[in-house]
Amino acid sequence: MPEKDDVSKIHDKYSLSLINPSSHYISLAISIVIAGLIGAFVAATYLESSDLLFPAIAVIGALVGTQFLDILFSKHKEYSKSLHVSMFGNGLFFVSTLIGFGAMGLFEKDGLDLFYVTMGMIVFVSFRIGIFTTILGASVKKAWAVAFIQPVAMYLVLIPPDMWISSLTNPMA
Q1: Which residue has the higher pLDDT, 158 or 74?
Q2: Which of 1, 58, 59, 82 is most open to solvent, judged by the fewest CB atoms within 10 Å of its CB?
Q3: Are the C-beta atoms of 163 and 42 separated by less than 8 Å?
Q4: Which tens digit of pLDDT belongs to each residue from 127-139?
Q5: Crossing angle for the helix pair 24-41 and 79-107, to the nearest 10 degrees
Q6: Is 90 exposed, middle or buried, given 0-12, 13-18 or 19+ CB atoms closer than 10 A?
């Protein structure tokens, strides 16, 4: 029996690593769906807005627009990896907002803090920096510059402008 390579060993040990979209189009489609869910969920729960369509479309627009910027900063072969990073990062962003909603119910809080939305954005940025430097081979300087664009753009179209300063400087307020 031939010896397993490192990737096979990882797949045997961590079943989560088997989640791998077969096509970059699937990753883009899943990212768009998750971005729409983020927009609608945050608008309905955190911002208590009845308009769910505009925030969802705005976040999707920011996602798609920034994906075009990722094309400029990645080689052709690496664009599919960039789309996969976007999909998993958006998933982390959405899970952070869900955790905040769950915490509100668990701790019986009166309202939702934007802390979890802000933390979701920061986790998304951190994830992108890590992947860009380790997997895509970007320099730390380039990774920091590129990694902030997509999550921050999505955050800024999602959160009303009058809440930007307070949510970024004191998200627990």
Answers
A1: 158
A2: 1
A3: no
A4: 999 988 887 777 8
A5: 30
A6: buried
